[in-house]
Amino acid sequence: MSHLTIRPTAEEYNPYYNLYIRNIPAGHDPLQKLREQPKLLKKLLSDLTEEQGKLRYAPGKWSIKEMLVHMIDTERIFAYRALRIARGDQQPLPGFEQDDYVPASGADARTMQSILHEYDTVRAATLSLFESFGPEAFMRTGTASNSPTSVRALAYIVPGHEAHHLHILQERYLPLLAK
Questions:
Q1: Which residues are CB-neighbours of 32 under 8 A, at least 6 positions away?
Q2: At what angle do helices 64-86 and 98-105 cross, to 10 degrees?
Q3: How far apart are CA 115 and CA 117, in angstroms?
Q4: pLDDT for residue 120 is more than 60
Q5: Where is the DinB-like domain (predicted)?
Q6: What does the pLDDT look like over 82-101, one tens digit per residue?
Q7: What is the pTM (predicted TM-score) of this model?
Q8: Which end of the chain is less congested by CB atoms within 10 angstroms, N or C?
Q9: CATH number, position 80
């Protein structure tokens, strides 16, 4: 899908999301990143115990399990936005408050196996959705969180958001487990 190797322009998304879009190297297909990320995630978490999944790198920060469920929830929401916009829906889509979602998720009471199964299921659905879009759908723009948002931008934001959290996992959580 060469049309996706061109990054979205600044008019296609809220400037905040540059934090995630910049995680997809210029000239790369963001859907390929979506295909590759599960392998990296599972490699990083393969030896994690249930108790280690509850690790927080600082007081008041999310546990590893909570971060994973946050990634899943966010991917679902962004894929839903992509579906609505790709289908031509012009109704403004509301934002969501991640800090309300995490405590309500009950992530720490879940097993890593159940979280990773949900992750795989959501990722398969996200890929199936994005792969179903033609080039014209990726260029459609709607409004999400009071900002213009294109389907192409969302295709970058989803893997970019995960890349952001995988970096945090590697930099802040995993070093604590190595001690």
A1: none
A2: 120
A3: 5
A4: yes
A5: 34-168
A6: 999 999 999 999 999 999 99
A7: 0.96
A8: C
A9: 1.20.120.450
